[in-house]
Design brief:
21% strand, 39% helix, alpha+beta, 5-stranded antiparallel β-sheet, lipid metabolism, single chain, cytoplasm, nucleotide-binding, 4-stranded antiparallel β-sheet, 2 domains, Ribosomal Protein S5, domain 2, Alpha-Beta Plaits, 10 helices
Amino acid sequence: MNAPTRASGAEDGAAAPRGGPAGGAVVPCRACLSGEDLDWLGGRSVSLALDLTTSVTVRPPGARPPAGAAPDGGAGAWAGEVWTFLRRRLPGLGPRPPVVTARSEAPAASGLSSSTALIVALFRAFTEAAVPVAGDAGGWSVPARTLAQWAYEFEFAIFNGGGMDHLAVIAGGLLLLDGRTTGLPEIAQRADFPDEWAVVVLDSATRKDTSDHIRSVRAQLAAGDARLAAYRERTDAASAAVWEAVRGRDLSALGAAMSRAHRAMRDLQGMSTPLLEELRSLALRAADLPLKLSGAGGGGALVGVCPAADQAEVVARLRRALGPAHPRARVIPARAAAGLAPEIAAAPAP
């Protein structure tokens, strides 16, 4: 792992929040097209960064918060915990983090990695805002690989999960990942998503429970559960099919492969719910759009891919179909997005 360094011109000394113009970071969310849990069980998964972003802005000392901003800046307890993590790794940081404002376009607890996007944005914003007291204009230069490793270690201590999300939002684009039982997965390949395709997110407005799900799956793994083994085999094959469909620009094959991944999640691991299945059926009837659950934990959002030229009509059809029966569900149009640091995909893993 590359070591963080002072920005050019910085001198040794204690570090403090930047007092000049506010800094920050903008990070995409991600959809999992296939391979939930395989990033830490072992196997292939496919992620796609989406332009539903999370932004963190460091406010200069004394600056008033934006109108309507949450009292904690929208970052909740994460800001203080990320700062504490960084203080153990970057010498000279002060006892308190800079004041930040956070905003997210992705629905929370929906399986689109909005929490990871916030954590990564905090790591990036804080490392760039932490400068020597002497007043140098630069912060810490933390390589993308180190940023991913730190964000993964931070979340692993809380959820005991994998590293797909951290690589997905940092590298961006379409990633084929090879999972590892410990540490970050390996980026096997990165590709740009076809410009002629767009993404439709159907948020069920039911929150998933990541912690409980991961505890359950780890218990299955320890017990040598046969259904978990079957899930890994079927989902790994679905991930390979998803990757080949995108690379071959075969939208029909992509929908079929994502549907196979969803059925493995539902039938072998119980990750879906009656409501999510009802929404999937509705999308097929109303817009001929195959949807797949993104993320695990018994709730969250479904994602589908359609021609970009048809996205507005597909969204309109789904919204009409939801009607009064599903007043809380939302249909969100999205496109593929670049990541915070796409160059990470070209850097060799340590």
